[in-house]
Amino acid sequence: MPTRMCAVCRKRFEKSELNRVVMSESGEIFYDRTGKAQARGLYICRECVREAEKKRVFEREYKRRVEPSVYERFVSEVESG
Ligand SMILES: [Zn+2]
Fold first, then answer.
1. pLDDT tens, 18-34?
2. Which terminus of the chain is more solvent-facing, meaning fewer CB atoms within 10 Å of its CB: N or C?
3. Which residues cross the membrane (predicted)?
């Protein structure tokens, strides 16, 4: 099974255990529920979903300012399944 690193805790997990986040060409950052969007992605494990904002992982990865609402939407989308 392919593994990927969680962008928050830096531990490795199987892809199926991770939540993928991507940034579209227009600069929108969103939860990639299918894991297949053709865009630059990062992965966050279940335990770190709520830590992403504190660690500013989207800013680090995408080198830009990210509104708190982007993190809030990510958390709520992941938690709603
Ligand atoms: Zn993690």
1. 999 999 989 999 999 99
2. C
3. none
CA atoms of 79 and 81, how far apart (whole Å)? 5
pLDDT of 45-65, one tens digit each?
Answer: 999 999 999 999 999 999 999
Task: List alpha helices for the chain, DSSP H.
Answer: 52-55, 57-62, 68-79
Q: How far is the CA of 47 from the centre of ligand 1 (A)?
A: 6
In CATH terms, the fold of domain 3-79 is Hypothetical Cytosolic Protein; Chain: A; (3.30.1230)
User: Can you read off the two tokens belonging to residue 78?
Assistant: 């992941």
28 CA → ligand 1 middle, Å: 22
The average pLDDT across 29-48 equals: 93
